[in-house]
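User: Watch each token:
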Amino acid sequence: MKNETVAVVFGGPSSESEISKRSAMNVFNALCDLNINAVMVEYSDKLISVLHNKKIDKVFLMMHGNPGEDGSVQGLLELARIPYTYSGVLSSALCLNKKKAKEIMSYYKLPVLNDKLFKDKKVLNSDISFPAVLKPNSEGSSIGVTIVNNIKDFKIKISDMLKLYGEILVEPYCKGREFTIGVLEEKQKIRALPIIELIPKNKFYDYEAKYTDGKTDFIVPAKLPEKIRVKMQKAACDAFMCLGCRSAVRVDFVMDKNNRFYILEVNTIPGMTKTSDLPKAAESDGISFKILVKKILDTASLKGFGRKL
């Protein structure tokens, strides 16, 4: 039986392309250390032809943002019958669309912040409480996330952001502690990894804080009362299930001064850089980076995982 050949697919036109490349290189090196035949493949409109020419058996997806996390590339791989890691077409599309993901989580009684979705500049009569958080509805890595403190700044910022991103989600600014939880699938079962508390040196856990050494302090496992820890980890697993995810996700939370926590978003292809949260959580649980990569690769499939609550 021939050894499998795994393509680590990265890049693409999204604003997260450089982070994707850094993550992919780490995964590629781990696969090589595991004696798995691996090649790096940069995304292009000839992706499927390249994969077929290289006789690829599985794809380890390391694309961030569109089109790698919105279901588009997943659909191509489904049609080409090439198994791939992480979530399937529908769950990928849902999770990258923050509004839709929150609607589904709210339906399942998971804690999310109230929001408004803006698609145009008709904001003069909008009932917005300040401070407020503006975020692109379909971007990851906190790209474009902005905090505004008054209606004047709100109108200026949302006008600029609508031009750049098309749809803007507006939420109340919840000042409090920030946490993230990795959820890992193993043999058709899922479990939450240790909770990480994020203490950014910026105002919040933005793009710079996520990917610049020294910009964030990480406390893992987070110092939380046992009752809250259990509830938060269960909420992360429930989010994974109700959104039909697969392989591994990262679920981001914020907790207010009254210890009420809210899910901010679910990331279906978590970063795998040296500063990324998922590898840190796995390491805290005794899972080395190489073993984490192998566990994720073992979930490669042509059908989503997905369960009902």
In short: Residues 305-309 have pLDDT under 50 and may be disordered. The chain has three domains: 5-85, 93-112+175-297, 116-172. The CA atoms of residues 102 and 290 lie 33 Å apart. The first strand starts at residue 5 and ends at 10.
